[in-house]
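P.,

For your records, the input lines for the assembly:
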Amino acid sequence: MGKLLAVVLVLIAVGSAIPILMHTWWMPEDISTHGHMIDRQMSETMAESGIAFVAAQLVLAAFVAMFGDKKDGRKAKHLPGGAKLVVIAAIALVGTEVLALGVFGKDAWAEVYFRKPVADAIPIQVQAEQFGFYFRYAGPDGKFGPMHPEKIDEGSQNFFGLDPEHDVESRDDIVSASLVIPMNKEISLMMHAKDVGHSFYVRELRIQQDFVPGLDIPMHFTATKAGKYEIVCTQLCGLGHYNMRAFLEVKSPEEFDQWLKQQSQ
Amino acid sequence: MQVVKVCTTLVAALSIAAIVTAAPGGGTVTGKVTYTGTPVKPKPIDMSKEPSCVKQHATPEMTETVVTGPGNTLENVVVYISAGAPAESNASSAATFDQKGCHYQPHVLAFEVNQELKITNSDQTSHNIHPLAKVNQEWNKSQPPGTPPLTAKYEKPEFISVKCNIHPWMHGYFAVLGTSHYAVSDGSGEFKLPNLPPGKYTLTAWQESYGTQTQEVTISGNETKTVNFTFTAKPY
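Structure tokens returned:
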């Protein structure tokens, strides 16, 4: 019986490692300049925890096979000090592992969160609300008009609470339900939530960032491949959460300029 | 047997007589609602997150805060008797508000206090209808596709802004009125209030962006009077 259990343990360990080693369910295509760092970090984490997992299962299987069926009346020996030593060892081991992953991943983190966007990055504001995303471009004058929360009115498509009657800068602002961007150009998002917490997740961009009501959260990225990708909310935000999404359209610079012109009319 | 027949005939004759007496006669107010100035330009609505709704519109649906017609006319203006009319109710059938193509039809629905309101969902997606009542009781209800119509009633007169909690762009109005004499201006800005008994009335016109205007009108006999309303439009 002990031998059979050992075989099952080995099969489970090897069976779960195979699809991961073969990249059977792997990550979607990466279309961002920083994505490869995230992917490498994911791979390193997977390798480290995978090796530890498989090794632990194999050691367990070996012990089960060697000692599982012995009924010779011998008493089990324990490490001195009881559970305390094991707990300390576990904390030290896991702590070292987490710290090591942090050190290896610092470049990816810094690229996304510590580096400021380049000076000529395109600024775009994002308004997340139950249940949609809206995007604002500064328009030809390059300036965003101020937001007046009391003027927010979805019925007239005033998602950002603009007051073009009094604010000249607001008059040429472009508001869109899709995030349209040129490829190979840095985008600087300023994220803002109208009501509750939401999240901005684009798998292909390797970006997942929460919106927090009351905070302006900056985020920057560069997309490298034209196409249409889905932006979804990954923070349960209410009844229509399942339906809260928008599209990211990455275009060539010429197509993007043309789109901007069309929107300004 | 003979007695029953006579009685039936008598009842039938009396009913007809009653209908004739109650049959609405009286005067009529007609008119046109127009604007001066430049109204706000309608903006196209991006419904791309709801593909089943996008498919139902050949060209994008436009915002309807101000809907204009030929000759500077205004559609969706509620014109009603706000004072002078007896408080009677003529509503026998329910007022219907439909959600079709992620859009409210009609954009402005006028009905009477305590009249039944029937809300239908003709879409393949869920809607959550949320009338933002302030005077009446506020509520919001979910309506998945294929579910039976929702019904509701309002007890007090109020203009209620209606939104969908799932599709932020969906917007409309309930005009709950304390009178049975009302009309909503059509595509050419015209309205007609028939069957007005003789009397002096206050006529009110309400537009969702421009507010209300009132005019006095006196009706005698079966005459038809023309009352026009003009709103001042703003470009923003």
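Two observations worth noting. Chain B has one domain: 24-233. Residues 26 and 224 of chain B are 9 Å apart (CA to CA).

Regards
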